[in-house]
């Protein structure tokens, strides 16, 4: 029996500069470019196998204009799940996650601490990320879009699994 294509809509949410675009482009192309459009919100469609099953990802790489701009209702209503991204080098981006979480409806989440390569500039400990994820009952991973392909893919795949599991219930 041929399995049908599942569609999974993912919003990539986080403060400006945390690496949302870097993570998204890394996942889509396996490459790291280093500089991305800082103005525009971008939408992508990407078909991949997750655990051997074809999935059509729709990814919205959000683009808040400042620390105070949280994801819009339109975005939150559209999304099946959110990738919540902060940078381990930026305490304020960790606080942004807490504020964003308050306006999220009950939906699958994955918490990502990006810029894991910049340990010398770390402002948020791994343990703090783990504690927040426990509070949100979500999966957590520190990654480096700049250096990793596999682990970046894994965070998108994990969110996809959570969305599909929630849908099956
Ligand atoms: P966005 O505003 O959240 O979309 O952030 P960008 O993807 O545009 O990244 C902001 C800056 O951080 C860019 O200069 C990226 O090259 C840099 N950056 C993104 N991810 C990483 C990472 O994993 N490690 C390091 N060292 N820099 C990163
Ligand atoms: Mg961006």
TrEMBL record:
Its EC number is 3.6.5.2. It catalyses: GTP + H2O = GDP + phosphate + H(+). Keywords: Hydrolase. It comes from the Eukaryota. GO terms for molecular function: G protein activity; GTP binding. Belongs to the small GTPase superfamily. Ras family. This is small monomeric GTPase. It comes from Laodelphax striatellus. The lineage of its organism: Eukaryota, Metazoa, Ecdysozoa, Arthropoda, Hexapoda.
């Amino acid at each position: 029996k041929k399995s049908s294509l599942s569609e999974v809509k993912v919003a990539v949410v986080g403060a400006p500069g945390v690496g949302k675009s870097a993570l998204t482009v890394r996942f889509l192309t396996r490459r790291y470019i280093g500089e991305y459009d800082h103005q525009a919100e971008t939408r992508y469609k990407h078909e991949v196998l997750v655990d051997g099953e074809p999935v059509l990802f729709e990814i919205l790489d959000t683009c808040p204009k400042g620390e105070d701009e949280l994801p819009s209702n339109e975005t939150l209503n559209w999304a099946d799940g959110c990738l919540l991204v902060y940078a381990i080098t930026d305490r304020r981006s960790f606080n942004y996650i807490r504020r964003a979480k308050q306006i999220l409806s009950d939906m699958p989440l994955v918490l990502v601490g990006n810029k894991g390569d910049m340990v010398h500039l770390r402002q948020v400990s791994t343990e703090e990320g783990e504690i927040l994820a426990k509070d949100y009952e979500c999966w957590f991973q520190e990654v480096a879009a700049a250096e990793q392909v596999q682990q970046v893919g894994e965070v998108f795949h994990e969110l996809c699994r959570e969305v599909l599991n929630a849908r099956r219930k």
